[in-house]
Amino acid sequence: MKKIVYNLIFIPLFLLLFFCERTLDIDIQTDPPKIAVSALFTSDSLWQLKLSNTAFIFDEVTSSKKITDATVKITNNNTNTSFTLPNDGTFYRYNKKPISGHSYTINVTHPNYPEASATSKVPYPFDIRGISEESQVTLNFFDGNTFLRMDLDIKFEEEQGEENYYMLEVTRKGTVFDIDPLNPSNVFEREEIVPVEIRSTNPGVLSSGGQDRISLLFNDQFLNDNNGSFNFSCYEILLDLADEYDTITNTIKSYKVSDKYYFYLTKMNKDLYNYSGSFDNYTTNNNPFALQPPRVISNIENGVGIFAGYTTSVDSLEIKYKIN
Amino acid sequence: MKSKLFLLFFIVFSYAFSQKNITISGYVEDKDTGEKLIGATVYDKNTLKGTITNVYGFYSLTLPAGDVQLEASYVGYDNFTEQVTISENTFKNILLSAGESLEEVVVSSSVESTVEKTQMSAITIPVSKVAKLPAFFGEVDVIKAVQLLPGVQSGGEGTTGLYVRGGGPDQNLILLDGVPVYNPNHLFGFFSVFNSAAINNVELIKGGFPARYNGRVSSVLDIRMKEGNNKELKGEASIGLLSSKLTLEGPIIKDKTSFIISGRRTYADLLAQPFLPADQNGGYYFYDINAKINHRFSDKSTLFLSFFSGSDAANFFLRNEGEINKQDFNETRLFLGWGNTISTLRYNHIISEKLFFNFTGTYSRYGFESSTKVKSYAANTTTETNIEIGTNSGIFDFGGKLEFDYIPNSNHYIRFGLGDTYHTFKPGGFNFRSSASNNQNAVSGSSSFDFGSSDIYTHEIFAFIEDDFKIGDKLKINAGINANLFLVKEQTYRNIQPRLAVNYLLKDNLSLKGSYSKMYQFVHLLASGAIGLPNDLWVPITDKLPPVDADQIALGSVLNIDNTYEISLEGYYKTMNNLIEYKDGASFFGNASDWQEKVELGKGWAYGAELFVQKKVGKTTGWLGYTLSWSNRQFENLNNNEIFPYKFDRRHDISFVLVHEFTKTKPNPKYDVDLGMTWVYGTGKSVTLPTSKFATIAPNSFYNLDYNSDVTIDNFTGRNNFREPAYHRLDLSLNFKQNTTKRFKKEFSISVYNAYARQNPFYLYVDNNSLKQLSIFGIPIPSFVYRLTF
Fold first, then answer.
1. Among A235, A251, A269, where does a domain finish?
2. Is B112 helix (H, G, I), strand (E, B) or coil?
């Protein structure tokens, strides 16, 4: 009875008194539609990019908004040569690879939109000189999971005299145990490339990849020395490192001895760093708790999106687990 | 520059000492209660020289020896007049009786006409008059009354936030008996912590700051508690929709020691309790207690001890029992609590007829904490697990201050002093505890850890001197300087803050005023929203974030018409440097552990004009306030370094306040009946909304870059790029007060908040391809208060 009184009287009264929601019939000043560019390029792959347009905030944005009839001209600023990218129905493609160290300018023209342009350079390839393991610690977290934290150091070739920006990602090829939440005794094993959660103790380093924190964005100022050395930690849930899982007692019977980890270090310019960081900020913090809405920082003049070069270097390391 | 200023003061002092006169000094007090009267005028009608009492009720008037026709007056009191002959320095307390002569004054600086005062941009609000205005949920709130003044804007719907002349809520120095109050909010900002029953005087200063104030850049709200009736025991009890109050005051030793204690508590949690399900418990309440005791050692020495404590607490308890085994259970307890504790020890001593001394020792604490406790029990294994997660933050201050008032003659009023406040900032801690145990094994496992920002210790040291002096009959100047040091970690900030205010009397009833103030601020408030959430965090300036500084100039004129109407017009221009703003997407719940990583540094400026028209006499009194203002910000790393409007940039702001006393001219009415009305209008706040959206590739993984997946992004073309619909609201109140000679007198007030059901915007958002507005209090909200005074 008490519950009924509570639900019938207090809750509606509270809502009536305090909250009224209505749809506003107000004209929002909006910019005329612009071209949105999605172009990330590296010297390892052919030219490929996608175009779409910005839509009024109350419109649906779907793939039907893509632009396939624009004129896309790329100019190599080092050689002062240019070429046009034809559209194949989805992408604008060109059968050549960008050249490392060269700067490119994109000009997109279309009768319905203002001309959009941007310039970016393809970074030179670089080598990862080594990855070393500093320590391992087992951690109990309040969500019930137990983690293995592996503190690592990555050394790489740092281009001097340039302001460099990086994204670090780590993966592990291993077994994943999927436990049926309705019936925990049902455990499914599968092999896959798993992104590994990585973090830095430095608060200035951006941890991106949504809630999973699967990449780190940083620049030169967070390196240990001029020779390119960066400290970070990988976090593994112990369950994922199980070699054998007892489905009757829901406990780990034994752990693996080791796994092979892959380290991807991507070098980029400030525009892409800003775009990646603000994109991650947007996907993570675009919620009612945001004090100011997150804004994705574009480098396209008279447009939105990104036109930027990058280069990725990869290395691997066999890590032996020291699980207590 | 400094040497010239010292030379100026030396000349002023020399001039002052050269006068040979007789001084009459003392306190001005309420005859019935002994309460000191702040800002009362004491005047010699023969020489036309006068002064006003300071915040402790002290006056000193130096006059030529001989006959003096002493007159004293104060809002709501009968004038005091006495013919005396003085041949030597005289100490004389003046007792004023509550009366009708000036009761009509609604808002005034004092009986000394605003026209004549050097101080501009300042308004004193008689608390007794605030009680006649409509009260939100029946809670008479001085902060809500302050919001009705020109140049002051409120925050969100119903909240007590103050935005003064384009400044932020953390730029107001809110003082309770001289001690800063860091969180003046109850119930997420819908009510202030100031219990009107315990308050004697409220003064708001928006510009032309005297040198004795420092530490904030936009305003000073100086609230003084009552001292307590030292003649007889009095009390007041009230019961309202939201809370009940009880106030007692009286003498402990008649005419020597008196006290006042006032308490208030809400009871929504108690009323809802019977209706909660058996497996649930919880509620919300706030309370506050004001207490003060003072002892008069002699006519010249008085000791005061005042105390304030106010807290809010919300808690929730839920118990789930196992469906198969009833002995299994899971209990969750949530707690959210915050509050201020303030204590002041003050000692006044009249060193000589011309020199008044005050020592103030202060303690202020604001704390916030939250906790979640989960307890589980499994009967089959007799295993009990406990998990506890808590957060806390706060600020603690200890301070001491020495102040002197030196009144060498009726042409000078010199104040000087120094002080130090030791701050301890606790920017936020997090702790975790877990344990598991069973009968077989006392403790089978446990873990705990704590982390968070470390405490920061700072000193804020200041010294000031100011002189309020006259040059001839028409020109009055208040010149002063405040020097301060702020020590934080290895860094020391040294600042000089010059202040100047000038008043030129064009006619007896018309003056021209101007002022300049330089202000520094050493603390920031990291606010998590427009409403006053308890987890808003006070943090000090650091080596990365230098002090906020502001320069403000103001020009204005005041016209008094037949002592019935007073019209003031002021214009101001204020620049602010080293302001902080949250970065795009920054969130209180974000993952950056260092708060400094969430903010950007920038500058701002605000300018505008304020018109204030008061009708002060008659059955119908009130005022009209109109503000035309601009407030903008510019940050190098925000909004592409382009200027954007401040969130509370409101072009037009109007407040209309009316009190009509129906029975004022009737002889011996059984009840005094009056009607209160307030109407406010403000241009909509600026808000950041997306103007378009687009699809893009997700650039957050390069080893696995997927060109085929698109993510839709809202595109924001600028910060605060959109105006909310205008805000307006009408509130009404009707007050009945029993006129009787009996000891117990009844009062009854009814109020209606938002009388015409305006749905004002509280929060705008885009949802389902439309713009939606969330409103709170979108319907008329009635309330009542029943009050008994004895």
1. A269
2. coil
Residue spans in chain B of domains classed CATH 2.40.170.20: 180-685+724-789
Helix count (H) and strand count (E) of chain A? 3, 21
Does the beta carbon of A136 lie under 8 angstroms from any beta carbon of chain B? no
CATH of domain B1-103: 2.60.40.1120
Which is nearest to B155 in space by CA: B175, B138, B169? B169
Is residue A242 located within the same domain as residue A134? yes
How far is the CA of B667 from the CAs of B128, B663, B670, B739, in angstroms?
A: 22, 8, 9, 11
Inform me whether the pLDDT recorded for B443 exceeds 50: no
Q: In this structure, is residue A263 part of a structural domain?
A: yes
* Residue B100: pLDDT band with limits 50, 70, 90: low
- pLDDT by residue (tens digit) across A266-304? 999 999 998 998 888 888 877 766 667 888 889 999 999
Q: Which residue has the higher pLDDT, A190 or B220?
A: B220
Residue closest to B79 by CA, chosen among B90, B68, B95: B95
**Closest alpha carbon to B268 in B157, B340, B186:** B186
Residue pLDDT, tens place only, B112-148: 567 788 889 898 887 877 888 888 887 888 888 999 9
pLDDT for B247 beyond 80: yes
Is B765 in the A-facing interface, judged by CB distances under 8 Å? yes
Answer yes or no: are the C-beta atoms of B241 and B197 closer than 8 Å: no
What residue of B is the nearest CA neighbor of A67? B695
Residues A215 and A263 in one domain: yes
In this structure, the answer to whether residues A133 and A265 fall within a common structural domain is yes
- pLDDT over threshold 80, residue B101: no
Backbone φ and ψ of A114, nearest 5°: -65, 150
B626 has pLDDT over 90: yes
Q: Specify the pTM.
A: 0.82
Please give the residue range of the domain that contains residue A193.
Answer: 128-269
- Element of type H or E holding B142: helix B142-146
Residue-wise pLDDT for A199-247, tens only, equals 887 767 887 765 566 889 998 888 877 678 899 999 988 888 888 877 6
- B383-409 vs B412-437, strand pairing mode: antiparallel
- E strand map for B562-639: 565-582, 599-615, 620-635
Q: What is the mean pLDDT of residues B342-365?
A: 94
Q: HSE on the CB side for B776, CA within 13 Å?
A: 10
Say how many domains are in chain A: 2
Sheet with A229-237: strands ordered across: A128-140, A146-156, A229-237, A197-199
- B386 contacts in chain A (CB < 8 Å): none
- B707–A288: do the CB atoms touch at under 8 Å? no
Residue in chain B lying closest to A26 (CA): B771
Let me know if residue A143 belongs to a domain: yes
User: With respect to CATH, is domain B180-685+724-789 assigned 2.40.170.20?
Assistant: yes
Q: Is A264 found in the same domain as A137?
A: yes
Euclidean distance between CA atoms A313 and A263, whole angstroms: 8
Tell me phi and psi for residue B13, to 5 degrees.
-65, -45
Predicted local distance difference test score (pLDDT) of residue B3: 53
The interface predicted TM-score (ipTM) is: 0.86
The rounded Cα B478 to chain-centroid distance in angstroms is 24
Give the DSSP per-residue string, B147-204: TTSTTEE--STT----EETT--GGGEEEEETTEE-S--EEGGGTEES--GGGEEEEEE
Q: Which of residues 382-411 of B touch A (CB under 8 A)?
A: 387, 389
Q: Give the C-alpha separation, B634 to B622, whole Å.
A: 38
Domain limits, CATH 2.60.40.1120, in chain B: 1-103
C-beta atoms surrounding B334 within 10 Å = 15
Q: How far is A39 from chain B (nearest CA, A)?
A: 8
pLDDT tier at B109, thresholds 50, 70, 90: very low
Residue B25 burial class via C-beta count within 10 angstroms: exposed 0-12, middle 13-18, buried 19 and up: buried
